Prior knowledge:
Layout: E1 5-9, E2 30-31, E3 34-35, H1 36-46, E4 51-56, H2 61-66, H3 71-80, H4 83-93, E5 97-102, H5 109-114, H6 117-120, E6 125-128, E7 132-135, H7 140-151, E8 154-160, H8 163-166, E9 170-176, E10 181-189, E11 200-208, H9 212-217, H10 229-238, E12 242-246, E13 250-253, H11 257-269, H12 275-286
Parallel strand pairs: 1-4, 1-6, 4-5, 8-12
Antiparallel strand pairs: 2-3, 6-11, 7-13, 8-11, 9-10, 10-12
Helix pairs in contact: 3-4, 11-12
Amino acid sequence: MKVKKAIIPAAGLGTRVLPASKALPKEMLPIVDKPAIQYIVEEAVSAGITDILIITNRGKGVIEDHFDHSVELEAMLEQRGNTQMLEALENTANLANIYYIRQRQTKGLGDAVLRAKEFVGNEPFAVLYGDDVVVGEVPAIGELCDVYEKYGKSVVGIKEVSDELIVKYSSLKINAVSDCLFNVTDMVEKPKLSEKFSNYSVLGRCVLDGEIFGILEKTPYGAGNELQLTDAMKELARNNKMMGFEFSGKRYDMGSKIGILKANIEVGLDHKEIGEELKEYIKDLAKKL
């Protein structure tokens, strides 16, 4: 079955990037000239996804405004003959069928996903974490959709990370199917180093079968007294219903200050308007370090 629906959990408080996220949702922090969440939506659209549910929280109405038409601004651009920017804004407002629902209390990623049950129905669906921007020639979620459509199993996007990060993320028990594809047979959220299965972790992307909702409804609250999506996915893994794919793109953690800086520098270097100027600036700056 083709994956046509996606959810983007974007209800987190962004405490790691305060004070920037006090009044501006971290998902709206810019990478050069576009907010982070636009990169995520564009990735989903590039993979053939047509319907997207963004799960927000109080104070995040600016996300809805961004993907809506701005009649006054568009009229001004048209009057000034700025057709290039007008086209860019119109494209943003027409990327996909985008819907919104609030997670009134931040009770974890599992709780956020559970709120999408009615939106998803009985279909498989993609999850693109609001903290994670993945940049690459091929949309990362598209690579996962291809795996789901071929094998009919839920699939998580994975990367190998350091011991320092594995205790903050999740650890997967895996065995290789091919170079980038693995069977996932167990997982643990935020493990101690003595508890880790491997240094492979779920990083920001997954495609799940609708049966995850029934599992979430009976999953007890876990780490941080939150409903952890990993705890529910663990049941799929232990029943031979989970695969992992090491996606090809570069992932940026937009919930961290260094992640935001890296994203702006690296995306900026490839940007057609400012790339060369930024490259010369960095070369000149490096001489002074």
